[in-house]
Amino acid sequence: MTTTRLISAAAALIAAASASGSVHSAPQTAAHTFALLQTQTLGNEPRVRPAYGWPLKPFDRQHPVRAFLDDPRIGHEGGKAFHFGIDIAAPDGTPVYAVMGGILYLSHGSLSVASGPHHEFGYWHVRPAAGLREHQIVHKRQLLGTIAPGWGHVHFAERIGNAYVNPLRAGALGPYIDPIAPTVVDVRVEPHGTRFQLIARAYDTTWPPVPGPWAGEPVTPALLRWRVGLSGPWHVAADFRRLMLDRSRFGSVYAPETRQNHENAAGSYAFFLSHDWQPADGTYRIQVEASDTRGNRAIGTTSISVSHGAAALSR
Fold this sequence. Notes:
The protein folds into two domains: 5-43 and 178-312, no CATH class; 65-165, Glucose Permease (Domain IIA) (Distorted Sandwich), CATH 2.70.70. The model is unreliable at 1-29 and 309-315 (pLDDT under 50). Strands 5, 8, 10, 11, 12, 14, 16 and 17 form an eight-stranded antiparallel beta sheet that branches. Strands 1, 4, 20, 21, 23 and 24 form a six-stranded antiparallel beta sheet that branches. The protein has a four-stranded antiparallel beta sheet with strand order 3-18-19-22, with no helix packed on it. A hairpin with a 5-residue loop joins strand 23 and strand 24. The protein has helices spanning 12-17, 250-253, and strands at 5-10, 23-24, 32-35, 37-41, 65-67, 72-74, 80-82, 86-89, 95-97, 102-107, 110-116, 119-124, 126-128, 137-138, 143-147, 153-160, 163-165, 183-192, 195-203, 223-228, 235-239, 270-277, 282-291, 297-308, 311-312. The protein is built from two helices and 25 strands.
């Protein structure tokens, strides 16, 4: 009789503290989700002088950001893409200013300023100020317009060459501090043919807190990695620290249960760690690390045991 390869797992701390556990038979299609023993640490990276200030007054004070670069965007008809900038929360009608001077380009509901031959800043959901003209020169901190009714934020994007880059990277938009580490929620193991998929749920928390109906909603960590063992090499699952990813990669980065944020409805971010993990029988310590652009990080740890014929979950 051919045995079917199945999986068992338990949170590392719980498994170590428990001398006995229950064993549950399961079909090969069963998936298991495991809580993690988590540690969080704050980064101590040196502060870097920002290249430009905020597009809202006061220019030298940090404003709430309710969406990050590469957050998931999922349309009502199923279209999926990575968010190509950050959403700075502010009331409708708030004045929006140029973070750098350059040549102005106007479009319906948005403006952009080319500050150099390959460097451009975009401002979406903005009602242009009176008197602005296509291709005119605008100056740093010149009024561009006001946040359009119904939006409650300005979508701010920076593009270098053909790539959208992360305005929250060190040395870009500022001042920007982040005193909160991301969170790794859990890990799920799913049979996938003769192999396994590893999926982690993780998120970051914005600072300062976003007010109103978008309060408390998650954003993506800047970097998600995983490894086998406590000293093995790290494998990158998602890296949003500098660039927007191509939309063709969405389905390989975000797992299908991912949901984006909506007003008064927090999303949930699930990331593929591996699509084809193929371990030999045995017990493995798995670590998942989520970090942000300022070096804050969370590491979650669990133990996963692979065997033949049954799936056991020790409690």
